[in-house]
Amino acid sequence: MSLTVIGLVVLIISAWALSSKAGPKHPPLFPGPKALPLVGNVLPSSKRLWLTMAAYSEQFGPIYSLRILGSSMLVLNSASEARDLIEGKSSLYAPRPPPKMVELAGMDRGVLFESNPVRMRKSRKLLHMVLQPRELRLFDPTLVEKNNRFLHNLLHSPHKFLEHIRKLPAGVTLALSHGYEVQEEDDPYVAMADVTVQNFAKASDPAAFLVHWLPILAKLPTFLPGMQFKRLALSWRQQYTALAERGHEHVESNIASGTARPSLTSLALASELKDERDIIMFTATQVYTGEQLYCTATLSSFFLMMMKHPDVQRRAQQEIDQVIGDERLPVYGDRPQLPYIESLLKELLRCCPPIPAVTRAPAQDDVHKGYYIPKGTVVVVNFWAMLHDKTRYDEPDQFRPDRWLSRDADVNTDPFEVIFGFGRRTCPGRHLAESLLFTAIATTLAAFDIAVPRDEQGNLVEPTGEYSDGGIIWPLPFKCDIRARSERAKELILNSVVQA
């Protein structure tokens, strides 16, 4: 959105008022790039802000201050600094402020951005019913079934691999959240849910809407010029609400008819939280939307990396052939015996983090290492910078799974201990994501070869390797050549679907 005359006036008045307001003396803010009057720090590019923020560390260190328009920011580019601040003061830094457009669109309803501690505890209790390792094992048959269907779809229509990738986490998470069985073709509920996923990705893009940086614009009347974002947010709110209500009503209807499958929603409706309809409804919906985005982005990166690094693919396949053989497909229980596949998954999350950064905000004023952090400061936890830290990783821009075979990872280097967050806001879906991703990667490598495609003239069509921008990133659409490794691999895939 362009900056309207009204918005500019508001900006100038607000900035002047903030800068001229007298107040008590505090320690200094963390050092950072010099800010301009009124507008603050003007970042060199509005795209891929996490890259710009990572680059500033070379001059200002792993933790520094920024000010963009009316927003005070603290950037954490080091996992050890994030752990020290966010885990060391977990109660103080538990709040996770939603991007303003996410809030306006009502997508802050649910565990992801919940600010009320009582509602948060209830939401977490609901998630523990299905997402803790022991409870999650009850859904292993569902994961295996959906993964076998994914392999079957790859075998019969490999050119639609990106569509099949989306369906895999959709099938698993909707079964887990609502006991919903996804139709193979044109499922109306999945189509509706995909719209929500896309809307959330747009709403969380820090460069897409000025209101992210100038929240006071949200208070202006909708009829004024430049307020289109408010009408867009309203339409997204209505769509998100309709999705949550439809899923909840689906489970209620199945319970009434005696056909409900075990799921987060059905278990919640049989628990002491059964009257918390709003909490159940939006917590269950975010199980789908959150895991769908995360796993879809990561699996898309997996196919891209296998094309770009055939040597890695061959080594991974050799390990599977030696450990598993060709009598069956790998299963999640094989994980301890497949260290190179484990290393591949770690390196995939390190090199291609689907969520480049998240935000926190202190609930009260804080002093850290002698520097002042005002209440409400937007604390940017820059996962991308942490996972590409030159002081912790050799050649951080290189995709090298073997790095995890030759070193001991600690909590500040292991991607599993970084990418899922810190403190009280660690991702509750971590175990589900690890199970789904490991299973899909191991079985895909066991059954298929993934290569760069050729055009009609026989020329290789190399992928650009470009990624989307925003709060969640994934590779831009690309093509690849996917073929069964052998006739035996085809038999295993077809037999697995028949048995299911």
UniProtKB/TrEMBL annotation:
Pathway: Secondary metabolite biosynthesis. It is found in: Membrane. It is a single-pass membrane protein. Residues 1-17 form the signal peptide. Its cofactor is heme. Keywords: Heme, Iron, Membrane, Metal-binding, Monooxygenase, Oxidoreductase, Signal, Transmembrane, Transmembrane helix. CDD domains: CYP64-like. The keyword Transferase does not apply. InterPro entries: Cyt_P450 (IPR001128), Cyt_P450_CS (IPR017972), Cyt_P450_E_grp-I (IPR002401), Cyt_P450_sf (IPR036396), Cytochrome_P450_fung (IPR050364). Its main location: membrane. Belongs to the cytochrome P450 family. This is Cytochrome P450.
